[in-house]
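Render this sequence as a predicted structure.
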Amino acid sequence: MQETQEHRELRRTVAAIVENHINPYVDEWEENEEIPLHELCRTMGQAGVLGISKPTEYGGMGLDYSYEVVFAEEMGHAKAQGVSTAIGVQSNMATPALARHGSDELRAEFLAPAIAGEVVGCVGVTEEGSGSDVSSVKSYARKDGDDYVITGNKMFITNSLQADWMCMLCNTSEDNGPHRNKTLIMVPMNDKGISKHKLKKLGLLCSDTGHIFFDEVRVPQRNRVGEENMGFMYQMEQFQEERLYAVGRTITHLEDAIEETIEYTRNRTAFGRPILDNQVMHYKLAEMQSQLEAVRALLYRATETYVAGENVTKLASMAKYLIGAYVNEMPAQLLQFWGGQGFMAENRISRVYRDLKLVAIGAGANEVMLQIIAKEMGILPRRRN
């Protein structure tokens, strides 16, 4: 992936937003366990960065996905990963299927305002008892006249407590098997049949997460994204962008944590010399930086493949797996270098330690990434239904 002057201009724009509109407030948002998401989305929408790869006729920039990766990397500099999570849902997780498969009417009603930052969106896939196994979701949308009537629940849904709409995966058939009986439906979140329960989390405190219940929620069938019963396939496509975004932002988030650790250990002395002046520090930090550069190279190759219109499933899954493996190791090692200070909530390294754990779980757990890679290698049978 070759970075152009246009990529660099985008970097500067996003970096300025992070520096001026995000990082001065993240401690407050973490304390309040809430981002003023509508306000932040309006700011980012006015800057034009919520629809970088989306169609220009709906307010997007119409650029290729390499620009979204640049956006993700710069969002990784936010000093709480809950912020890049919330914004990533808006820009790269709840909208790709809508932009690619939605009708013109749906895109005008839901996509254009989301790109402009006028509304907040979320994506509803995970359920209680159904996480990485997307085929096992139970929420059902039955037909009644010109409407769908939706019953079920969605669990661990980012942005859902503030969202104006949900791109929701529901079963719409009982006959076609678990991969051919699901549909993505745009569901406004103001229906009286929708109830919300806020979930408390280990990390990503500023990013609101909800358990959402749907009781006979009526939605016009015209809110269907693309073809009926193709929702599982659309969601698998949507996951690829989510995974590439997750990798990009996590690389830079870890690089910032490394830099902060270098600065701290350079100025903290023990036994008469700076902590940084120990060979174990040199080797471990050099190893971490090398690992992150290797993942970045894989991310850039995956991005080139995706932009070329080729199947990116294996490469995206590999990148997601590797960064997921590293977040299980690097934050713990960095925190150790901070000693007792690393255990204090006032130091950001403890937030990094808490926040990044989810990278190995969300958007497909690491074990699922290995299953996908094995299938792409031809050593694990594919499901046929």
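Summary. The CA atoms of residues 164 and 189 lie 5 Å apart. The beta strands are 121-124, 140-144, 147-158, 165-171, 182-188, 194-198, 209-220, 269-270, 273-274.
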